[in-house]
Amino acid sequence: MTDADLVARTAAFVEEKFADEGSGHDWAHIRRVWQVARALAAAEGADAQVTELAALLHDIADWKFHHGDDEAGPRAARAWLSSQGADDTLIARVEEIIREVSFKGAGVATPVSSPEGACVQDADRLDAIGAIGVARAFAYGGHKGRALHDPSLPVVQHGSFAEYKTNSGPTINHFYEKLLHLRERLHTDAARRVAEQRHAFMEQFLEQFLQEWEGRDLQNIG
Ligand code: ADP
Ligand code: NI
After folding, report:
1. Is the pTM of this model over 0.85?
2. Tell me, what's the pLDDT at 212?
3. Which of 34, 167, 178 to mutate to test the pocket of ligand 1 (most atoms within 8 A of CB)?
4. Residue 73, SS3 per DSSP
5. What are 140-192's pLDDT values in tens digits?
6. Domains, the chain, ranges and CATH?
7. Helices 189-213 & 27-44 angle (0-180, nearest 10)
8. 186-195 tens-digit pLDDT
């Protein structure tokens, strides 16, 4: 099988698997991460096949939907790739990227071990910010039955993955606990350039949201 065949078959497999997903981890998210990771890999001179396979498989069995099991993703990726006859070196590189991709709390470093891992992590994080990031955060919060906002619940800067995983705060807190940190934690220059405007948009969104929440824009009613 050629490299292109394996990528195409993986894309078809993931698209089918995610057809009914409504939590913001849908095929459209995966496709964007795939396309952005591919573009970052070209800019960075990273290996295209490894980057594309890892991007396509990065959420295949996310810990958020597998009782906090952070080995479920690498395991599912391995099972798929070995069913396709991929060699072990390739599988191990993809597994490592998936193991490293997730955000694990504001106080937890998430280093990557390869240029391909940098491209996939950056692509996933670019999709968590900006207008799409805002939409995905509320889609995920709705899926989990979270409040939009509750000013009585403090923002927590999680110092361990265990704490981050069990957090159930309102969605607005998630911006301060994760999304506003992402711009500073990107690896590639190209992703940093894209993040500038997306980050500024989120700040503007939060300012407007809090203005409406607190009724500060109601002076003109009477
Ligand atoms: P990661 O693996 O880094 O968490 P994903 O691709 O799995 O990234 O995407 C997670 C998505 O779910 C993001 O858009 C993120 O904002 C959203 N999300 C995760 N946790 C929460 C939360 N507690 N509240 C709202 N949205 C969340
Ligand atoms: Ni993702």
Report:
1. yes
2. 97
3. 178
4. helix
5. 999 999 999 999 999 999 999 999 999 999 999 999 999 999 999 999 999 99
6. 3-214 (1.10.3210.50)
7. 140
8. 999 999 999 9
Given the CA of residue 128, which atom of ligand 1 is nearest to it? 14
DSSP label of 182: G
3 state SS of 167:
coil
Handedness of CA 197, 207, 164, 15 (dihedral sign): negative
51-74 per-position pLDDT tens digit: 999 999 999 987 666 777 788 999
Nearest-atom number in ligand 1 for the CA of 168 is: 23
Measured in angstroms, how far is the CA atom of residue 100 from the centroid of ligand 1?
15
Pocket of ligand 1 (CB under 6 A): 24-25, 59, 62, 101-103, 124, 128, 133, 136-137, 140-141, 146, 171, 174, 179
